[in-house]
Amino acid sequence: MKGNIPARIFASHVSLNSVDLSNNLFDGHFSFFSFANLSKLEFINFSNNEKLFIHLDSGKFIPSFQLQYLMLSHCNLDSSILATPNFLASQYALEHLDLSSSNLTGNFSNWSFENLTNLEMLNLRNNSIMGEFQLPKHPKTNIFVVDLSMNSLSGSIPVNFGTMFPLMMALNLSSNNLSGKVPSLDNMSLLEYLDLSNNNLSGELPTRLLIGCSKLFILKLSNNKLQGELPRYPQASFIYLDGNNFTGTLSSFVSNKQFVALDVHNNQLSGVIPEDIGRVSILASLNLAGNHFHGHIPHQLCNLAWLSVLDVSHNSLSGSLPHCLPSSELLHLKFTGNAFTGTIPSSYFSISSLVTLDVKNNQLSGKLPRQIGERISLEILILGGNSLEGTIPIELCKIQSLHILDLSQNNLSGGIPSCFGKMHFKQLASIYYTYMDRYNRLNMSFDAPGMHYTYTNRDSNEKLVVELNIKGNLCPYVLDHSLLMSTIDLSANKLTGHIPPEIGNLNELVQLNLSHNQLTGPIPETFSKLGQIESLDISHNRLSGVIPWQLTQLTFLGVFSVAYNNLSGYIPDVKGQLSTFDVSSYVGNIGLHGPPLEKTCTSDSGPTKVEENQDDSRVVDDAIFFAILAASFVAGFWGCIAFLLCHHSGQNIQSILDGYVDYLTDRILMAAHKRARMQRNRR
Question: What is the mean pLDDT of each run of 10 residues along the chain (683 residues)?
């Protein structure tokens, strides 16, 4: 439904006890004064009407009802209701209050805890609430869920937080500006979900942080400034301590046989990956990236039948890649930035569930296995920065689901398979770690005497980071809610032959890097069909011919380089993207002329492309001009032949003809470019 909500529709329904207009397209303004006569009203849900402006306090409006549930998430509320909550403060029976994503501003006040004595769930997520978190004066034994995440709260978390909310089940204070140390919460015996991530919390974690929290299910302390050794608890199933400065080893976690996900990436952890981690039978996600682990990957990991995500990238691990990883659940494998040797196990390409395989920047060797095309679900394949050799197998073209292909910085030889043009390389909404949908997109239910809540955290999806080579620069690319950049990177190999024109069929390709190879032949005119291309690098090859004027149609180009080839002719300077690049994009081509290069063939240099949409008179003029030019060329040519036959021996004829042809070619080019310049001046 859409449009305004007529206030009069509620006037004649005095017995209403529930109003649910959620998930619509209502707009305009609506005042709760319309409910003035509904004395039995207990339930209001206007959630997900993002264009609707709701006014709770309207003049001297005194409601005759007492609500139990009020859900106004993703609406537009008066920002002043936090400071003077006349209506809300009068709703003493309120149990469930959800004002998330409703454009609230102002300082946080504890009136919701003090006045709303029956409140069980408070959700003020994703607003602009400032100030310090204020506790109630007395313990609140009926508060089960508090979500103040994604605001601008500052100050520290009160040390007696656990005492004030002893029966809390879920606490989310993530993505604020909280600082100081994390207090002990050991007396919150019912706590199942704790998220303090993305703040400025510092120091070591208290020894008794969660000793008494026997029901803790999810613990998220990511992206703070916490330090010291990893804590020796808990029985949590999902543990996220990434983006801190923790030190020490993983041994303290191995004793926990219940966790499903462990993420400690980007810390200062060291030592080896303990063999006992293979005993954590239900482990689905293990992220150890960006630490200082060394040694081999223990073969005990092969016992993890539910493993979906394994990321050990950017450590100092060595040895061979494990051949025995379970194949039934694997989604993402990342080994990049280590010192692994040997070959890529061919078994990886038989894992039907695998979406991401990233082994970039190791010391792997051998050929690409022919099994590489046996499976169809692979979307990210990154094998760059190794010592792989041989040709690119045509079986690779069978993987129609690929979005990123990186074979750069290897020793691959042979040609680029023309069947690449039959692949899709479509852009795709970001790849989520699918295990999060199974386990931790956080659809958690809380049951207590007389009530049942389902608490959903829609922003808990993991982000996948890959490194893309853009004009020689390694750029970490974070895949979250943005579009996945479809990419082909074959740079820094020993590839030969022509660039297949069929690559121009990949009209959703965003990045193409074929630089630093031994490719020959022309730049395909079909590249003009790469309508979404943003980065095109074919530099440092042996390409010849001219730069096709059709490339001026690539309006999204932000990175472009044809430097250090054997290109000739004029750089197309028709208004378009090619005119925006500097000298570095064209340098190293002896026969290339025109701006931005200083080198020109004549003082009157100009473009080689005559625009297609010319008027008829210009077409006729050009036809006459080139007809006369061609006739002059023919007359001069045959005159030269007659002269040579009369005055020169046969052995000199060829060299003289070559010189004459070169002379005439230069004259024709000069005449054509002068005429083009004159026509532009007339326009």
Answer: 74 84 89 85 93 78 87 88 76 92 88 85 94 85 92 93 90 96 86 95 86 86 94 79 95 76 95 91 92 96 91 97 84 96 92 92 94 81 97 92 94 96 71 40 41 42 46 43 72 98 94 97 96 95 95 90 96 73 93 82 43 39 48 50 46 45 48 49 48
Nearest 10 degrees: Cα torsion 323, 326, 332, 335? -30
Tell me phi and psi for residue 612, to 5 degrees.
-70, -35
Q: Which two tokens stand for residue 85?
A: 């909550």
Q: Which residues contact 383 (CB under 8 A, 6 or more apart)?
A: 344, 357, 359, 360, 364, 368, 406, 407, 410
The string of pLDDT tens digits covering residues 445-496 is: 444 433 344 444 444 444 444 444 444 444 444 443 334 679 999 999 999 9
Q: Is 541 left (phi over 0), alpha (psi -120 to 50) or beta?
A: beta
Phi/psi at 62 (nearest 5 deg)?
Answer: -115, 110
Q: Specify the pLDDT at position 66.
A: 92
Least Cα distance to 307 among 222, 434, 117, 161 occurs for 434
CA 226, CA 611: separation in Å to the nearest integer?
62
Query: d(Cα 618, Cα 621) in Å, to the nearest integer?
Result: 5
Residue 662 makes CB contacts below 8 A (sequence gap 6+) with none
Cβ–Cβ under 8 Å, residues 571 and 548: no
Contact status, residue 32 vs residue 10, Cβ threshold 8 Å? no
Report the alpha-carbon distance of residue 503 to residue 422 in Å, rounded. 8
Measured N-to-C along each axis, helices 650-682 and 616-647 cross at an angle, to the nearest 10 degrees, of: 160
3-state secondary structure of 439: helix
**CA–CA gap between residue 263 and residue 32 (Å, rounded):** 46
- Secondary structure percentages of the chain, helix, strand, coil, to 5: 20, 25, 50
CA–chain centroid gap for 358, Å, is 16
Extended beta strands in 327-458, E state = 332-334, 339-342, 356-358, 363-367, 380-382, 387-391, 404-406, 411-414, 428-429, 443-448, 451-456
E strands, 14-127, are 18-20, 25-31, 43-45, 51-55, 69-71, 76-77, 96-98, 105-107, 121-123
CA 400 – CA 486 distance, rounded (Å): 12
Answer for the pair 139, 164: CB distance below 8 angstroms, yes or no: yes
* Six-digit token string for 80: 């002043």
Rg (the chain; Cα; Å):
34
The pTM for the full model equals 0.80
48 neighbors 22 (Cβ within 8 angstroms): yes
Taking alpha carbons only, the member of 308, 324, 302, 318 closest to residue 262 is 308
Peptide bond into 596 cis (omega under 30): yes
